[in-house]
From TrEMBL:
Organism listed in the record: Prauserella cavernicola
Sorted UniProt keywords: Copper, Metal-binding, Oxidoreductase, Signal
Signal sequence segment: 1-17
Annotated protein name in UniProt: Multicopper oxidase domain-containing protein
Molecular-function annotations in GO: copper ion binding; oxidoreductase activity
Pfam annotation, one family: Cu-oxidase_2
Source organism, top-level taxon: Bacteria
Domain annotation Plastocyanin-like: ranges: 62-170, 184-295
Record keyword Signal present: yes
Matching Gene3D superfamilies: Cupredoxins - blue copper proteins
Keyword Metal-binding (UniProt): yes
Length: 321
């Protein structure tokens, strides 16, 4: 399939799995250059319990959906197959699209139940106009439903129809592991502690977080013992780069950002929390853990005990107000 697609001038889709399922060498799954058209088929499916997800093949939908990745200058054609009995769509942030790829009922751009529809997302590099530089598409973006429940996709987003969209710039460093963390309503990835899966890395690995906000309330994302800087990549361009270093950032509905850290760098392996820093949200279950193993993959001292404490977490229904 890859050879045939290449012959037609179309590159293989660039996609990696969602939270907790990271490749040890994702470099091999990503493109080396920009400017090509990539195609991917996405399946929207009901997961039971009122939850819905996107997946890359029938029966594999997850919450959040798969990370979609392209390079600046690429075009991404998404064939969305709606395997549910509800109307739904896929709507991106950060990229260019025509009205018929908007994903909104306003523009009559959505999938009726059981139908297939193609959405085209375009990206571009920075360009100069009238002496000023206009930004390119590179960034940590996201996509979500915009048609289930109401004309804004409120029902689809609440039910789990969302995921990360990364537009990379040529030369960007690629991570060894990758996690999508979505603060949706009062959940992380539609789960609350202690049912949020433990994410893992080994000490020293380059790890990428993509953080997305959804729902009806404000949130703040905080990661323990690791810092990044408040720009597109989360990394300084050099010793004189004055971009502020942070370990906490607003993550309100529709927001997204991403960054890379070296797991356990300067602090060592162990079980590190990440959570919403609105107190009644974290106490209410918007708190999860990142296990940084020893460099050889073995468990650090005390880590199992910390995981056990997390599993014993009881979130208080009286925490708010
Ligand atoms: Cu919150």
């Amino acid at each position: 399939m890859l050879a045939g697609a290449a012959a037609a001038g179309v590159a293989a889709p660039v996609v990696v799995a969602g939270l907790g399922t990271a490749s040890a060498s994702p470099e091999t799954s990503r493109p080396a250059r920009a400017g090509v058209t990539r195609r991917v088929t996405v399946y929207a499916e009901e997961l039971g319990g009122g939850q819905f997800g996107y997946g890359l093949s029938p029966g594999t939908a997850t919450i959040p959906g798969p990370v979609l990745e392209v390079y600046e200058g690429d075009t991404l054609e998404i064939d969305l197959v709606n395997n549910t009995d509800r109307r739904l769509s896929i709507h991106p942030h950060g990229v260019d699209y025509d009205v018929d790829s908007d994903g909104s009922p306003l523009n009559d751009s959505f999938n009726e139940p059981g139908t297939r529809r193609t959405y085209v997302w375009k990206t571009r590099a920075p360009f100069q106009k009238d002496g000023r530089w206009m930004p390119g598409s590179a960034g940590y973006w996201h996509y979500h439903d915009h048609a289930m429940g109401d004309d804004h996709g409120s029902g689809g987003i609440l039910a789990g129809l969302y995921g990360a969209l990364i537009v990379r710039r040529e030369g960007d460093l690629l991570p060894q592991r990758q996690y999508t963390v979505v603060f949706n309503d009062m959940t992380i990835n539609n789960r609350v502690a202690p049912d949020i899966p433990v994410i893992e890395a080994n000490q020293g690995e380059r790890v990428e977080f993509i953080a997305i906000g959804h729902g009806n309330t404000f949130h703040t994302f905080h990661l323990h013992a690791h810092r990044w800087v408040d720009n597109r990549t989360g990394m300084l361009s050099g010793p004189d780069d004055l971009t502020p270093s942070i370990d906490n950032r607003d993550l309100n509905p529709g927001d997204s950002f991403g960054f890379q850290v070296i797991a356990g760098e300067g602090v060592g392996p162990g079980v590190w929390m990440y959570h919403c820093h609105v107190q009644f949200h974290s106490v209410g279950g918007m708190a999860a853990v990142w296990l940084v193993r020893n460099p050889d993959g073995s468990m650090p001292d005390g880590a199992q005990e910390a995981l056990d404490r997390y599993q014993a977490h009881e979130h208080s229904s009286h925490a708010g107000h």
